[in-house]
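Researcher: Here's my situation. A collaborator sent me these components and asked whether they could plausibly form a single complex. I don't have experimental data yet, so a predicted model of the whole assembly would be a useful starting point for our discussion.
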Amino acid sequence: MDSFALLGLLWAILRIAVPYVMATLGGTVCERAGVINIALEGILLLSALGTALGAPYGVTAALASGIAAGVATALLYGLLVVVFRGDQIVCGVAIFMLADGLSRFLLKVVFGSTSNSPRLDALAGQGPLWLLGLAGLATLLVHGMLSYSVLGLRLRAVGDKPEAAQALSVSVLQVRLWAVGLSGLLVSLGGIYLVFEQRQFVALMSGGRGFLALAAMIFGGWQPLWGAAAALLFAAAEAIGIFLQARGLHIPNWLLQSVPYVLTLLTLMLRGLLGKRQSAAPLALGIPRL
Amino acid sequence: MAGQPRLSTGPLWLRALPLMWAALLAMAMASLLARLYGQSPLAMYRLLLAGTWGSVYGIGQVLFKATPLVCTGLSVAVALRAGLFNVGAEGQLIVGALATALCGAYLPAATPSLVAIPLCLLFGFVAGGLLGTFVGLCKWLCRAHEVIVTILCNFIVRAAMVGVGGYLFLKESVHTAPVIAASRLPRLSVLFPQLHGSAVNAALLLAILLAVAVELFLRRTRLGFALRVVGQNPEAAAAAGLHLGRVRTLALALSGGLAGLGGANFVLGYKYYYEDGFSSGIGYLGIAVAVLAHNRPLWLLLSALFFGTLAQGGLAVNAVVPRELIDVLSATVILAVATASAEVKRLLPRFALDPAKAEPPPRVPPPHEPFPRSKPDPTESVPPPLVEPKPSPPVAWVER
């Protein structure tokens, strides 16, 4: 294998990794504040839809509407589970179902098809390069924020011991809402990236990346840096499969498609079997509280 | 969740609040989306009603759509009663349907119906159950969260079906060989000629029986009781000697099996073969069915009927608004019920009929004592001390 092909493979891994990394970061921020985020997939999907809907009006509009859609979905989720204390897992899955139905419906309303949008020419020439850089920067920022800032300290306190945080007059509700909103912002960058790279919106284009990101987050022990590394690992598996296929190795398509899911399942099982008895999950994860 | 008051202890109007809220929100959402599409909401509702409950054929189709929803809804509900969230009903349904179809296709043609139909159903149950068991084992032995594992299983099943289909499907098609005539379930139009043309079949009766059976199982059997205790208060259950891992694995196995049975409606009652993509979200809709019915098997029949109406209504209104509207509505109903139930639970202590009944922790007897069948003994209102009991009878799911 020549070094040129190897470089190409590395580049492919990085490109595939961006949505995984952003969703993993979003999930980490949310769960460290004690809110389970199965809604990641839905946020990813709706932010991608928002980007596609804004794309005909220019790149800035696409960015703005993508972020707005993602943050709005996240805040809706936050409203339901943080303010109204609905069951976080049930609501998360329902948000995904809502996102799937709504994206197909709006596709039909705007583009006249329930399966995909036409090619979005306005996004042509907008290389996702700077989004890739942004993903790397975001990883470091989230790590710094969680570990070294006052907001991060409060966020972790709210996720581990909300009673203690409340006793120190930190509003559990407010911090959790901020965390869910921030996670929406991070995830929507992943959704924007998906549309910018494919220059098209396809129904269910998030393809389970949000769910895989949850697994990456768990595999990374709820640490942003390790989570991002796990996301890179999943992306590498996907990229290597495509790479081998492109070099003439015959792998059936369906096998290739199931590789990320099987690999994720295996890593989860291995981690459970070999890892420490004590889970690294935030202590108050999934417990609604006012 | 441990220590939460149960909704069933409240007065009826309070229990009905989440449902009314959900109906209101869903109708508002539907009207908004119809307007967005440039259609009059009223015309849409009229079309929806005419296409479902407006004709005998429509009613038959609603019942046909509701049948597999009972199975997947029961699947989700049983798992939820054990405190587990099975999102994998979709994958389990697909695997179960494929197993049912293969069993039906490869049986000798001379097999009598009395053997063939139960055997096909058993294959579906076992196939779905095995997938559920795998999830349970992942949770028990690898401490992997069942939601993530089931979602991953759904994706893997969907991808694997494409691969498996290459070997099993008939040439130039996306379906398997048809099942033998003896394993086919009769259409209900045999009994009621008015239903002619509708696909509703004997699987509906089986589904109703299944719901009754699950209700009896949860209420009347030791395993059903163990399952509910683990769901309501795992710590208490573990302290009382129940093995959480085993009970949960059994619950997930049962849950998977119930979802696997859902394929019979399509395979044995409608098309007589397994077809790629037949499930189209029935498994996910099962979540909505279970949540709306608060996981009660008998209420679940009504809830399945409601979502069956929506599913059939989606086809009826497809001419004026995209039927994806129905998916949005189901999600809205889940969100509304899930959040409103939490709020109503908070109000419960104020309105509970009997304050003593609103106090939630179930009384868990130590393993040497038989599980209470109906009412706990009033003289024994104090929970028994949770000390090491004397030797207890060997029961499969009890760990000493």
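Model: Some features of this prediction you could bring to your collaborator: Residues 372-377, 393-400 of chain B have pLDDT under 50 and may be disordered. Chain B touches chain A through 47 residues (CB under 8 Å).
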